[in-house]
Amino acid sequence: MGSYHLGRHLKILEFALSSMLRRRTKNLGLVLVFAALVFLLSSIVFLTGALRTEALATLEASPQLLVQRAMAGRHALIPLGYGELIARLPGVGSVTPRYWGYYYDIYTGANYTLLGIGDQGLESPGSTPLRLVEGSFIMPGQRRVCLIGEGVAEVRGTRIGGMVSLRDARGWMQEYEVIGLFASPSRLLTNDLILLPEADLKAHFGMPDDRATDLMVEVYNPHEVDNISRKILERLPDARPISHAEIQRTYETLFNWRGGLLLAMFLGAMAAFMILAWDKATGLSADERREIGILKAIGWETSDILELKLWEGAALALVAFLAGVTAGYAHVQRFGAELLMPVLEGWSTLFPAIDLAPRIDPYALGVLFSLTVVPYIVATVVPSWKAAITDPDRVMRAS
Amino acid sequence: MKYHILFGLLSAELGLLATLHLQSAPSAERLQSELADKRALVSKLGLTDLALWTEARYTRHPSQADRFAAFQDFPSSIEHFPAGSIIAPPEPLRMPVGAGSAPSRHRDP
């Protein structure tokens, strides 16, 4: 009994494939368009997935709590006295000032991030030498030296032993010797970075001695971070605490295929797909109508015709979906998402080369499947059902 | 039997996807092994953001952007908010360079 049913389904599938082969040019065109759309959509899903995984995993080690100061609605330098006040709160460990800022390089048109590291950071107990640094790291007390990211080294055409000259707050050119390079695996974090001794950075930006860019706060119990943030805001209303969870949430949202610029691309491709499905749903060709009429006239049941159309839709959609997903995966894994990179790069002068390891996310692929394959099959079956429940004579005459 | 060809095609596509996925395993393993080093760097330098987009403050440090993060200071930046296409630039910016303090619109008769 079971084999009879299986055999019947296979025969209908065989008939469906023969029918599709008779209209091979049209169906091949549909497969290509369908696969191209799935390729674009799945490339976006794989690219954002890979970036999100990398960002969240790497920034897991970012500070537990940062405290900035906002003045007139924007970020302002924070008085070191705020740090002393925060350090007295119960549950707070160390409070470390961070010194950093931006530098627009008029010669290359690039923006660098300048970061200062103090002797306190260099001598932190238990710290192991950084393996992602080529050359040497800054030593306590050392001045007029720097470590630079790969992007900076490329645009400035310098390497270890070279010099980087930057115009300071007084308009004087200051030269720093490059003693180290951040190795390429770290380029997603350090591409535009110039690491200077803290004293040099403060002098460069003309920062007052009693101010820092922001404060890095260690909280003993990670569950207390929100509580500490609230206490800081009660005592310092102009402070702006940024927790580790907020940083993670920012990147979770940024690289979500359901948001941002990538959503715009996603929606564009989806709209194109919907037009394709709508076109399919709003009418059968004269040939298809005649075929349904003949099948009904020779004794096919409506359910058989629906199964035939279901097979047709499923065969085309599955072949195209798998082809699109495979091509999308290869595009991201093998070719570094070359077609999407210009969109992602935007106007960045120093966009890092990204090493991507796409992950197959069953949830995202499931969503993609239900947004493409399912509507397509429905769009194939519904008009056929309409034709199949009509009198065969009328269907054939109408066609 | 045409359905054999269909099943064969679908199997080939799945096989190709699986092969590509397996081929990316060493790259994923390498990235995983570098993760500890990257985290050490993030921890040591107190980094908060990826160095992806350097064109503006809020793209370089999205997690640190001002609450009102509308267009911020960056040399030669181009307007990108819809409002910018409606609001005309302020009068001083519309004056040609070196035109002095007398805009042509307010010239005496």
TrEMBL record, chain A:
Main subcellular localisation: membrane
A single Gene Ontology biological process assigned to it is:
lipoprotein localization to outer membrane
Task: Spell out the protein name for this chain.
Answer: ABC3 transporter permease protein domain-containing protein
Family in the record: Belongs to the ABC-4 integral membrane protein family. LolC/E subfamily.
Its membrane topology:
Multi-pass membrane protein
What positions does the domain ABC3 transporter permease C-terminal occupy?
Answer: 286-390
Q: Which PANTHER family match?
A: LIPOPROTEIN-RELEASING SYSTEM TRANSMEMBRANE PROTEIN LOLE
Give compartment(s).
Answer: Cell membrane
In terms of superkingdom, the source organism counts as Bacteria
Q: Which Pfam families match?
A: FtsX (PF02687), MacB_PCD (PF12704)
- Which ranges does the record mark as transmembrane? 28-51, 259-278, 313-332, 363-385
Q: What keyword terms does UniProt attach to this protein?
A: Cell membrane, Membrane, Transmembrane, Transmembrane helix
The record's annotation in InterPro entries points to: ABC3_permease_C (IPR003838), Lipoprotein-release_system (IPR051447), MacB_PCD (IPR025857)
Looking at the record, the residues that make up the MacB-like periplasmic core domain are 38-232
This protein's GO cellular component annotations are:
plasma membrane protein complex
Q: Which residues form the signal peptide?
A: none
TrEMBL record, chain B:
Query: Would you say which domain of life the source belongs to?
Result: Bacteria
Question: By what name is this protein known?
Answer: Uncharacterized protein
